[in-house]
Write a structure and sequence with these properties.
Length: 141
Amino acid sequence: MSDATAVTPATAAGAPSPSSFKPEVTFEDFAKIDFRIARVVSAENHPNADKLLKLQVDDGSGTLRQICSGIREDYTAEQMVGKHIVIVANLAPRKIRGEESRGMLLAASEMPKDAAAATGEKRSVILLQPEKPLAPGSLVS
């Protein structure tokens, strides 16, 4: 008798290959990453980049945090407002096209950016979100 829910390796075109996996990290290194729930308070198109959105998120700290993210081909600014997302809260700030980004939101895709660019295929990006809304600042472990 066959189990229709059995897990099988990905076979779709563009699915990650084992060689595309990143190098192993220690538990201690992984434990340094501060994953948190944040709620998107406002969003707008990045003024200097066609693929970026500029988000203001409530991370539970009492001060809004700006995150720039390359999700504009899959989400509009209006769609992002009110969403609860998973962020890396302790990523060092960096300038992205002239705007400071203080964190990173987590998303998934069926193919790496470079593979989509090389083949010209459309790459879909899906936000990682909690199943139910959680208070901003909630820990993800």
